[in-house]
Amino acid sequence: MKAEGDRNLDTAREQDRQWRGASRRPAEVIAPARCAHLRVDPRGYPIIAVIPQHPGREDYGSLSEQRKLVLATFDLCAVCATPLRDELRWQVTFDDELQHMGEQPRFSEAPVHEVCALYAAQVCPFVSSPYARLGDPMRKGQRRPDTLVIAGFDRTAEVVGHDSELQVGEGILMFEMAGLGRTHRLVGADDARAAYEAALGDDAPMVLDDAERRLIDILCAPTPEGEDAGGVMAGAAWLIGAAFCPQIRRVQAMKRFAQARDDFYFQVAANALLQPDLMQDWESIDDPCIAAASSWLRTRQRLPAVLEQWQRDGARRVRDVNGRRPRIATTAGAPPRDDAAIRRRKAAEAALRKGRRKKR
Ligand SMILES: [Zn+2]
Fold it and tell me: Where does the record place Basic and acidic residues bias (predicted)?
């Protein structure tokens, strides 16, 4: 009989074997059409929307909180930066983690399209290895996961600032997801590749309107000064409503906006709520980020649910000089009961339970 240490070693070797070859060189992988505009680093890795990307110092091991705020505000995919629209929104989990996260699980990552999640699992070193990107508890080696569970949700229920569990005193944005619709359980490189190829077959280029195109062009390129555009775009996001994101001031990366003189970003955002006509003037302003964000805002038929919620929260917090609150268009109220979504969620949960039993 083998000692426990040997058994663990055997399991680890088996996991290594299953995931060997999971991370392929980007040149070997056909990119989804919707990722075609992403710049690549000198090794050919796509520079995905959510990572810190000062030119030459792209950091695949980190998430930019400023970029997460921009993605939340404009409801964009954290890989390709195009809109999530009514597609399922996907998050990466490991093993049976999802079953212990409650009905509306919270993630420190911004959601992505299905094809983008599976593409990242092919080419990004930090998604493709099931051991990577697991944060400090994992790196301390308590447990090695062997299954990558990629979960698709109907909607982003809420985005809030929250104290980080990994770094004391360091606030981060959390994305609360609702309506689990489908999952991919990937137990090795072959699975991951097959799932990606199937999703790629269904992929179509994303049709963008002018305002969306402008936002994405700015976000995916360095600024004219040669800096990561995440910072300036986060500033524009504050002005059109991200200033009202709950507990946003706990997020240290927002210091520059939260501690601006006279609370400039919050005050301007409040004025924009009180006098929406102001925003029209912003569209011809010199700052390309503010101009693009305002024209995006004006041309939406319906705001993304997260931004709409922030604006509603904001309207409760601000008053004009006469003590009046802003009047904003409210489409508030609980979303209608969606029986199809409930059926999909139950099926997805049942599939997860089945997968767990099989593994034992
Ligand atoms: Zn995407």
Answer: 1-19, 336-352
